[in-house]
Amino acid sequence: MKKIIIAALLVITTATAPAQVNRTQALINAALKGWDIELRMGYNLGGTSPMPLPEEIRKIDSYSPGLPLSLEANFIKRFDTYKKWGLLFGVKVETKAMETKATVKNYGMEIIGDDGSRVAGRWTGGVQTNVENYYLTFPVLGTYRVHPRTNIKAGVFMSYVMRRKFNGYVYEGYLRNGDPTGEKTSFTDGQTASYDFSDNLRRFQWGAQVGVDWQAFKHLKLYADLTWGLNDIFKNDFKTITFSMYPIYVNLGVGYAF
Fold this sequence. Notes:
The chain is mainly beta. Helix content is 12%, strand content 64%.
């Protein structure tokens, strides 16, 4: 008897499984009616910089972007009959990073001594800066299909900084304690002094975003987005660096359209 019951249950399950799958797929299709979904992976190329460069920064000696990657899911709602206009909502986990060396004069600085003490003033000489911030980003963009395979997008993004890093060291120069006329402390012959402004970075950042994507195949897209931060990366009460700095990056990558 038990064998008969088990056999009957297997037959019923086998018979109803395709119907259950079809019902689930139908529910998903109904929920997503009028929506396009895409997953994207990209690379952020750019930097965190004042615009324009202030007179304190005399020369950029070197630049390296590091390995700042992004993973993103986008949901696009089409409005008109021809599906030209739409609204995109996205969620993205990304890194924005760079390493630079620059020659500066009277650059606001707070160095950390070997005993942990801090001395603030104006630095003249070389500065290495390391930036590596991890973001949870939410773009909201209007989209327009200019060609069956090409979309242009524009809007805003909002980011929460999950992990903050803005540090480096100074070398081959001198620090004027307090202001440009203060006591002079020199660092030469390979001497360096570190600094760390990571805790002074604000958690919330926002800005403008524009971009374009091209559908190379049925499901594969290539894209390029420019993001430009519009609020200073540092908190309002941070006065050591005397000018505002903004993250400006181009995100290049590939996407899969469902």
